[in-house]
Amino acid sequence: MVTSRVPAAVAALLDILRAAPSLADSVHIEDGPTAVNLTDNDRIYVGWQPNSEAAVNLLQDFNAAGARTRDENFIINCYAESRAGDKDMSLRRARVYEILGVVETALRASDAFPEAPTLNGTVLWAHLTTGDLDQSKSEGARAGLNFGVSCFARI
Questions:
Q1: Nearest to 93 by CA among 45, 36, 131, 37
Q2: d(CA 141, CA 139)
Q3: How far, in Å, CA of 126 to CA of 107, rounded?
Q4: What's the distance, CA 5 to chain centroid?
Q5: Hey, CA dihedral for 107, 131, 86, 39, is it positive or negative?
Q6: What is the DSSP string of 42-92?
Q7: How many CA atoms lie within 13 A of 142 on its CB side?
């Protein structure tokens, strides 16, 4: 019996983002935290946010009387970042929101990816629900966006 859909959902989210044509050549997709590597200017971290202890926040409860099934709500914490050596913050901010737009589009159903909103069948639904922008100008302009992919599953 599966006690959580979190591991399968995180793996599916990584697969969906890595398959997104708009991200494939220009954005590095990372599974969890990584060592500092500034060679890629645009990145998405799945299951990691700066200054956060949790990769995923989850809550489970019984679905109905009889305790046969449980509902699981969880948020996969993610972080998108765009950086460059210049000091033009507006370009970095626009780029990080462009990356977020591709993530949101990748989570919507399409003819090519009809199972995207269910993270390839791992959950009943998933969608982008939260976001916080941070910016800095040390060693060039950097815009980062903490975002969450909220999911609902029945186990």
A1: 131
A2: 7
A3: 7
A4: 16
A5: negative
A6: EEEEES--TT-S-SEEEEEEESSTTS--EEEEEEEEEEEEEEESS--HHHH
A7: 14
Beta strands in 32-69 (DSSP E): 42-46, 56-62
Does the pTM surpass 0.85? The reply is yes
CB 119 within 8 A of CB 16: yes
Two structure tokens written together for 38: 């500034």
SS3 45: strand
- List the pLDDT tens digit at each of the 155 positions of the chain: 688 999 999 999 999 999 988 888 889 999 998 766 667 789 999 999 998 889 999 999 888 766 778 899 999 999 999 998 888 999 999 999 999 999 999 998 877 778 778 999 999 999 999 899 999 988 889 999 999 999 999 98
Token pair for residue 100? 């977020």
